[in-house]
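Readers of this paper often ask what the protein records in our data store actually look like. An entry from our holdings is shown next, in its original layout:
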Amino acid sequence: MQKIINIIKKNKSVILYLFFGACTTAINVICYYLLCHLLEIPTVAGTIISWFVSVVFAYITNSIFVFESKATGFKNKTLEIIEFFLGRVATGVLDTLIMFVTVDLLHYNGVIWKIISNIIVIILNYVIGKWIFKKK
């Protein structure tokens, strides 16, 4: 039992990142569904709003629980938030580019490449988050 506890302690940030990442994804999908299917907001607007809401949730959970941010003061917190959002914008653009090239240009299987792209994005988001929250 102690081995399991030690493994969990050693990998705490990864476990929490995966848990809150799943929650972030659920929030994104539910928000998108509510906006676009129930309120009939156009797809692009619903996607952008859903992305924003889920990134706000991701920032809060990542800064408090996953990476335990040490940033204090208005200036440092603001810089941290900006860096977090820019990192998420960058990986969102990367995801879009991967999908455009592999599916639209090369005509590969979209589901397979969405999974591959998401794995890349999740890894990059973790690395970026770790850098943003630990450098302070």
Observations:
- The first helix runs from residue 2 to 10.
- The chain has five helices and no strands.
- The chain has a mean pLDDT of 92.
- Residues 8 and 15 are 8 Å apart (CA to CA).
